[in-house]
Amino acid sequence: MQNAKIEMSRLLEYAHREKRGKSTFFSQRTAACSCPPLDKKQLSFPLGHNYSMVMKLHGHPFSPATHRVMACLEEKGLEYEFVHIDLSTGQHKKEPFLSLNPFGQVPALEDGDLKLFESRAITQYLANIYADKGTPLVPQDPKEKAIVYVWMEVESHKFDAAAAKLSYELVTKPMLGMTTDDAVVEEHQEKLGKVLDVYESRLTGSKYLGGEAFSLADFHHLPIVSSLFGTKTKALFDARPNVSGWCAGILARPAWQKVVEKMKH
Questions:
Q1: Of 19, 29, 238, 258, whose CA is between 20 and 30 Å from 226?
Q2: Rounded to an integer, what distance in angstroms lies between the CA atom of residue 151 and that of residue 168?
Q3: Within a domain: 192
Q4: How far is the C-alpha of 168 from the C-alpha of 16, rounded, in Å?
């Protein structure tokens, strides 16, 4: 319990989680997908790039950003190895992890000699380089792709700016025994409500934010939406029928449910 609190305090606002619990899945290293190994010979890669057969995801089980990448790997049906980074000992602030992410934050991905950090950059890489695997997450048509990218930016700069703060105040702080700042909650509930009003309008004429197909524009919301659905902020989503239905649909996706189940154990 104490170690978990120490780890969460190091994550600060970035370390919001959907559920708490120790997991045998997260004990150091595990092949976290039962899907058959990816045959990369079927793909075309840049010359000189060394791709291993199994990717490595370095992360932490309480990290929403880690969950985002895990869900993408599951959505694409890709085999990977999970490497647990122990935040309580400061493993993320030391070598060799700093060679993967010089900012010392999880997650980081290794695909052969390619090293990536920042969860949204990783999901874009996976969606594009493995476009023919699993669920298509980025359209091929340039105009449709541009629309998806617009809403990806909205998630990152509008939605997450308010929602992540609420998750920190309403989920992380209580778990750490800290006092929630009601004024901060009120301020960011108002901000999130305005964003969700735009979403409600958008989803009136579109099944998903990026268009008629599920994409990264929807996908990137999963960890924080899931976190907030266990708090009073869920009422903001429920008050908007289109948003509520959209949330129910993306949260029910099998790939996300696999991540949720792994967090329970």
A1: 29
A2: 23
A3: yes
A4: 6
Residues across the chain: 265
Same domain, 80 and 100: yes
Cα–Cα distance list, 142 to 109, 149, 183, 262 (Å): 27, 10, 43, 36
Mean pLDDT of the chain: 85
What are the pLDDT digits (tens) for 153-203? 999 999 999 999 999 999 999 988 999 999 999 999 999 999 999 999 999
Six token digits for residue 218: 């929807």
Tokens of 48: 């000189």
- pTM score: 0.79
Question: Strand, coil or helix: what is 13?
Answer: helix
pLDDT of residue 53: 67
Quick check: is 64 in a domain? yes
- Which of 137, 158, 177 is the C-terminal boundary of a domain? 137
Lowest-pLDDT range, 40-49, 71-80, 244-253?
40-49
**Whether 50 contacts 113, CB under 8 Å:** yes
CA-CA distances (angstroms) from residue 43 to 100, 112, 119, 130? 25, 14, 23, 8
Do 41 and 103 sit in the same domain of this protein?
Answer: yes
State whether 156 and 108 are in the same domain.
no
- Look up the domain containing 216 and give its range: 142-259
DSSP secondary structure of 19-44: -----STTSSEEE---SPPP-GGGS-
d(CA 214, CA 250): 8
Tell me how far CA of residue 8 lies from CA of 31, 35, 131, 177, in angstroms. Answer: 25, 31, 34, 11
Is 110 among the domain residues?
yes
